[in-house]
Amino acid sequence: APAGPALIAPGEPLALLIVRAMLGEEPKATLVDKVTNFFVDNLWQYAHIAGAAFLFYEDRLLCSCSIAGFVGLIAACMLLEATRVSPTHGDRLWRTVVPVCGALAVVFSIGARLMGWTSHMKICGALLAVCFGITMVTVKGDKDARLRL
């Protein structure tokens, strides 16, 4: 037997269903509803992670470039934090710098492949410096990245 009264009983009048919906009463979620919501809400995230892991396994240069870009971005944020600027409080970091650094990792990786370059260390070092510079210049001029006293 259910713990509480069932909100929708067989043969219940439509007017009663409408009143309950207007009052904000919802039926209890069943196990099937919970499992369905879990897969609908979370499965796409796991699919993207699995796809990225497979892609990084297949293309090690792209993985190296992604890590180098991330390290450059984090290093610039840490330096800005040390100089009393809060880079995470501004919009430029999230709207500009993160997408640009991600795109640059892909561009550097594909460009190196097309040009036949095989020196991963030099390519990743250059990308790290570029991401560091872009982050410093872009976030430093952001008024929303508040100065902390």
Could you describe the 3D structure shown?
The protein is mainly α and 149 residues long. α2 packs across α3, α3 runs antiparallel to α4 and α4 packs antiparallel against α5. The chain is flat, with a radius of gyration of 25 Å. The chain has five helices and no strands.
List the helices and strands and how they pair.
Elements: H1 14-22, H2 31-58, H3 60-82, H4 91-115, H5 120-140
Helix pairs in contact: 2-3, 3-4, 3-5, 4-5
List the main descriptive attributes of the protein structure presented here.
149 residues; 0% strand
Summarize the structure.
With 149 residues, the chain is mainly α. The chain has helices at 14-22, 31-58, 60-82, 91-115, 120-140.
Beta-strand percentage range:
under 5%
Share in helix: over 70%
Instruction: Report the biggest beta sheet as strand number plus sense, adding barrel if it closes.
Output: none
Distinct helical segment count: 5
Oligomeric form of this entry?
single chain
Rounded radius of gyration (Å): 25 Å
Strand segment count:
0
Secondary-structure-derived class: mainly alpha
